[in-house]
Structure formats: structure tokens, C-alpha cells
User: What shape does this take?
Amino acid sequence: MLEGFSERLNETILKSGISMRDLAKRLGTDHSTVRSWMVMRAQPNIRSLAKLCLILDVSADYLIYGKER
Assistant: This one.
């Protein structure tokens, strides 16, 4: 992922009001996995990225590149 992904992901999660644990549950993963994306220790695969976008109502272009819809 490009620079800024984790910042945009953190901001989007915060704005959504969804807890990290709830987000992880909805994604079908562990909260530690979501946390690793938030601190750029790991990157979501394409399926997880697509689910993130649906759950958080944000485009992949925004999360990856910072481009608005």
C-alpha cells in the first residue's frame, strides 16, 4: 500500500464509529489483524480491502491513494 494508507484507514474507522473488534468481526478476522493494518505492520489482501470499503462506505481509491470518489 502507498504512504498514507494507515492514516486514512484510522481516520475512516474513527469517523465510522465502529470499534476495531466489531470491524474485525464483520470482516471475519481477528482484531489484531485490523490493528496491524492500522499501524502498517501488514496490508489487507484484496478481499479484505473490498470488505473494508463496503463496511466503512469508502472507496479503495481513497484508502490507497487518498482520492475522493
Summary: The helical segments are 5-16, 20-27, 31-38, 46-56, 60-65. DSSP finds five helices and no strands in the chain.
